Amino acid sequence: MLTPTQAIASIAVMSVVTFLTRALPFLLFDRGEHPPKLVLYLGKVLPPAIIAMLIVYCLRGSLSALEHLGGHLLEAGSLGQWLPAFLSVALVVVLHLWKKNNLLSIFGGTILYMVLVQQVFV
Amino acid sequence: MDRKTLSAAFPVTVPVLMGYLAIGMAFGFMLQAVGYNALWAFFMSVTIYAGSGQYLGVELLSTCAALSTVALMTLLINFRHLVYGLSMLEKFRGMGLRKGYMIFSLTDETYALLSSVQAPAGVDPRNFYFAIAMLDHSYWILGSVLGAVAGALLPVDTTGIDFAMTALFVVIAVEQWKTYRSHIPAILGAVVTLLCMTAVGVDNMLLPALAIIVVVLLSQRSRLDDAQAAEENGKEETVC
């Protein structure tokens, strides 16, 4: 665990960087200049690419299990290393397409995941 | 801020109240689960104030990430704010000292409210926007502190609660998938990151993945940029 000083430093970095991402458009373009088209383009296409990247990052444990397990993927002892995450992601997608309710999708998926890792694939 | 402004702003923010209490509580719960109590939740929610950013923050704190990693990850997850700011330039003009706070508190939800609401007659729009921003922030702080306290008091096994972060990103991705005309950026982001994970391993995958994504997106601008395509000669766009 981080020392309190280190944790405060981390939080300060998060706080400053978050503020900068919010302030940058105001710092650059608040005097009436039109934002360069390249910036507008990146501002539009980067967010979905980054969210996809972060999803892969979040699932890295399960994905690298898939990579290492190879042919042993479907054995009883291996399922717990990757199946809970994929089932829960699938539930989030289905719930969200169906009910379009952020909270229901997030909590439904999280509860399924918690039940799977705590009770089913122990 | 007068009572009239507050009572005009409060009803507008009720959906955010519900959402922030729930998402904020899940954040506080996760934070408590990795060993940081309600005081830390309060401190983070007051100073950072970002939903997905703070979910990621839990992960960064619990894995003792280096400050450079913290900075990079925070930058990535908050990149979309750039677009929000661009469309708020006009709205925040002339707000004086409060403008700094308006910029600080420009979360997804507050942005959504500010883009859609109108101040009722007799209420100064500047005061109205400021009241909305402050109310939303206070809901977020309240939710995260409540979550951390509940996490400390309830004897619940919280193993797996960190999946809430993955779920939040999946929800954002589904929303983007429905709104965006081209799915190439999303697919590119996933494929490149997977390739980088296989090539350099899970610990070093993000920076090369991000670099490749930016380079490919820049090189494909003529295909993906609607504005540019429209400008060129109005030809059919090749988006899927």
Can you give a write-up of this model?
The complex is a heterodimer of chains A (122) and B (240). Chain A is mainly alpha-helical and 122 residues long. Chain A folds into 2 domains: 1-31; 60-120, no CATH class. Helices cover 80% and strands 0% of the residues of chain A. Chain A has 6 helices and no strands. The radius of gyration of chain A is 20 Å and the shape is elongated. The model of chain A has no long low-confidence stretch (mean pLDDT 89). With 240 residues, chain B is mainly alpha-helical. Chain B folds into 2 domains: 3-153, no CATH class; 180-231, no CATH class. Chain B has helices spanning 3-33, 38-47, 51-62, 67-77, 81-86, 98-104, 108-116, 125-153, 163-179, 184-200, 206-219, 221-224, 226-232. In chain B, helix 2 (38-47) runs antiparallel to helix 8 (125-153). Chain B is globular and about 60 Å long. The model of chain B is unreliable at 233-240 (pLDDT under 50). Classes of the chains: A mainly alpha (122), B mainly alpha (240). The interface between A and B is large, with 71 and 94 residues.
